[in-house]
Structures are given as structure tokens and as C-alpha cells.
What we know:
The protein is α+β, with helices and mostly antiparallel strands. The protein has 8 helices and 15 strands. The strands form 6 sheets. It has a 5-stranded antiparallel β-sheet. Mean pLDDT is 81; it is low at 40-51, 140-146 and 389-394.
Amino acid sequence: MSSSKKYFKKFFNYIIPLTIIILLIILFFSYQNTSNSINGDEEKKSSWNLFEEDNSCKYNEGDTCLNAPSKCICKEDQICYPDRTKSDNLGCYTIVCGDGYRDKGETSNTCCLDAGCSNGLVCDANLNKCVKPECSFDCCINDLQYQDKSCPQYYTCNSLQHSCEPDDSDNDAFPDYLEIETGTDRFNSDTDSDSVLDGYDNHPLSSYLPRTYSFDWRYGNEWLIFTKKFQFDITLSEDVVASYEKMPKINLINRDDIQLEEVAKIMNELANTENYNSADKLMMVIAFSRSFNYDYTKADFSGKGLPDWANFPMETIVKKQGLCADSTVMTSALLRKMGYNAQYLTSIECNHAIIGISLVEGITLDGTERYITKDGIKYYYLDPTSRDYSGNIIYSTTSKDDFGTTFCQSNDFLVREI
């Protein structure tokens, strides 16, 4: 073999492989330098770190202490509970007595707020202690011989009734021991500030399920033969609506009612927009009342007398129906909040209720108007009940000619306070 051929074979056997190795090394370090320049200061590692595992907790990508316990590690005073509302980003929760969860170590002695009580006791939220909820004895030996005894906590001895009676510090129809058990404030009659006393509130700790009620009715000529359409919305908590069925039917017309005050404000604004005088504003409210349906479900009173079966004013408004008494209660209360002098009138002969209203600006009398006099003031008849007594009312006409009138021809109407 010639020397040139030997050299060529030697070249292929050693030089070429060595060249390939050198090129691969150059390419490898070139790639590593390029990767480091892209990542900048974020990662200054050797090429071997490319194969190491990332052990950081990526909570933004859904990692929690529950599905990634090796990366998302809770503190010593925490537990892993991502489902709890006050858990942190890692899903870790700090145990607190009174949070509504019974956790390890919480007992009736250490945290009755969460663990509860046994043997008929209830948890005092102020003391975090189990106490006796009921009076187990009377405050007397017998009806003739009174014995002075001390009642249990949150009870007072009634010497006339010879018994221990539950305290109600804020007069909200919710005894103190129940307020403590529930967690409401026994010195605040409306813990959640939704205008419902705690004793009549289905959810006394928070305002519940607000709903919007819409109303529309017609009054007055808009143009030609067409009447003006009025409408408004009002939002009420479902607890407010439910409370009407629970509260005693007393002081129906003059009671404080922030919802009715809001309706009165809306009525005044609607009338002012139309530049109505006192007469048109009055009749606009009467038209509003006449747009409600007749409530046949209340036709049989089953021996109950007024006002036991009557609606509260806002109850009639929400239901959009009622009897003549309901309409009269509602309009009397609403008109009073709007500044009118309105009275509740009833007739035994007609079994009917209407409004008595003093003379207002914009009414011209012709001498045929009917009225009743009280304390030297003439209260003219005005019927807030629709002339369509069949229910299912589309809309009822109303005019200032209705002032001083009612379909009931009886003269036995009397002013009644309810």
C-alpha cells in the first residue's frame, strides 16, 4: 500500500472523529450560553441544572397543600384545608375558635362555639362557656306563698307570674339565651341592620336574598285619550317580606317602616317630575292602590277581627293584592309619610273600609262630597279599593271626581285607629 493511502486511512480513523467531538462540544456550550442569556438573572446555573426538579409551590397554577403536599407546606399552627374561605394561597388554614369549624383539640370546654355543648347546655358566645339555657324551677312555693329565688343566667324572676322568665335585653322578641346560642347581639335589636327585629328575622346574622319588585300603573291624561304610565322598582330582603307573617298585627299605620318611607319618597319624586299639585299626587297614590287585585284567599276571616287578619302596608304592596282594609291601611300609612292628613274609616253596615282625607290643594268642592268630622276637621271619603272587585285588574280609572265619594251609601263610617 502506498504511503498516501495509509495517511488517508489514518486521517479518517483519528482526525475525523476528533473533529466531530470538538464540534459537538462547541455546540453544547453555545446552546448553554444562549439559554442563559434568554433567562437573564432568573437562572444562573450550570448546564447540569437543566435536569433538576422544580420544587416550588405554584399556587397560581392550582398547586395547594392538598394536591401538592411536598411543595406547598403549611406552617406548624396551620392545617391543610383549601375549601375553607379564609385559607391562604397555599390552601393552609389557621385554626381559630369561633370560626364555625370543629377542629382537632376543640371541645365543649376549650371551644364550645365550635364544638357545641352537651347535657342540654348551650354555648354562651360572650364567655365561650356552656351554660344552662332554661329555667328549671318556678320562683315560688305556691300561688299564695312567694319565695324569692335566683333565676339562672339570662332569666328574671317575675313575682306576679311566680316564674322565671327569659330576659330580652333589646326587646327584639328574641330571648337573650337564644341570642347567645345563635350568635346575635343581645343588646342590638337588629344585628344585621336589615330593619327586621332579630326575633322575626329568618337570617338574623346577615341580610338574605334581596329581591326586586316592580310596579306599574296609570293615572292622568298623557295625550288625547291615553293615560300616563308610572312605574318603579324596589329591592327588599326576603327576610323583610317573611317577617310580615311573624310580627304581631299592631300599629299597622303609624309604625316605623324604612321600606314604606322609600316608597313614599319615590311617589313624591314621580309626582314632582310631572309638576303635580297635592290633589294629583293624592289621586296618583289612589290609582296605585286601585291597581292591586282583590285577595279572595282572605274573604273568610274565620272569626278573626281587625286588625288580626290585616296586612302591613308593605305586605300589601309586595303582594299587590288585599281586601279593602288592606288597601286602606296601606294608602293611609303611605299618604301620612307623604305629608297628608289621612284617617282609616270603617262602616259596619257596608263591611267596608275607606280613607278619610282632609281637603288638599287642587280640589274644587261642589257640595256633594261626603265627609266625617273629627276634632273640628272634615275628613272627606276616598275609596282606595279598585272598582273592579273581581280581581285580575288590568288597570282602574281614577280621577279627582272620586274625592268625597265611595260606593258604600252607609252613613255609619267611623274613624278607627289600628
